């Protein structure tokens, strides 16, 4: 809408409409294909000859659209701009209804949109782009628990781990440490609700301001916890499948020391230590093993 000479390139990714999440309307198409058709339709309604291309990039969303030429002469630019406004407003009013069928084609869509608009909305064409539209902030706040203070996260991790370990001390299994067999406490599994009941109100209030809250924090600490079907477990690294080793033996030996960039939580905090010997554990048993 900036000018008649405007050209555009767009790589559709997230499924959003003009004012919110894009709502599917056709079950015969995949969500991606349906959304691509919608984006192409917008370009056609805006008077572009829309071209589709597939980029050579490592992504599943690589279909792009290019608008280089117009389908109408310059004198009709003001009229088309009015139809664009009506199209946007019509989509907003339609999306508030339930069970409305949407046209798959752009032919005649602008005329149909204008006929269904209230007089006030139709008269506002050219002056209002989208009433109530609120763009996102320039700086998006990270709310996936990654920006929480490290001390706070460590305290929550230690509290939850101690809760699981003390819930069922009898739930233990043999662990080989230095040639001798010892019992290693795996702890009990508790639901997220049960875990939350043992945390302080201040902690829960702080976690609720993050997306996913407690569950996200525990999943972020993959070394210590495993969250399955809403239940929290102490991760047993003896049951983890070893990483595929397709590299030559020489390269594996050279890169082996680079793996240990973090201290082993179990070696430091677990009452029975780590369930794996130092040579098998992907984490450092002491600062001397850090890269």
Gross geometry:
elongated
- The percent range for strand residues is 5-15%
Largest sheet: 3 strands, antiparallel
In angstroms, what separates the terminal alpha carbons? 55 Å
The gyration radius over C-alpha positions equals: 29 Å
Describe the structure.
With 291 residues, the protein is α+β, with helices and mostly antiparallel strands. Among the domains are: 8-93, no CATH class; 144-167 and 186-235; 248-290, no CATH class. Helix content is 34%, strand content 14%. It is built from ten helices and eight strands. It has helices at residues 31-45, 77-95, 109-116, 119-123, 150-167, 192-197, 201-208, 213-220, 249-255, 265-269, and strands spanning 8-10, 48-54, 63-70, 172-177, 180-185, 190-191, 225-228, 231-234. It has a three-stranded antiparallel beta sheet, with helices on one face. The chain has a three-stranded antiparallel beta sheet with strand order 6-8-7. Strand 4 (172-177) and strand 5 form a beta hairpin. Helix 2 (77-95) packs across helix 3 (109-116). The chain is elongated, with a radius of gyration of 29 Å. The two termini are 55 Å apart. Mean pLDDT is 80; it is low at 97-127.
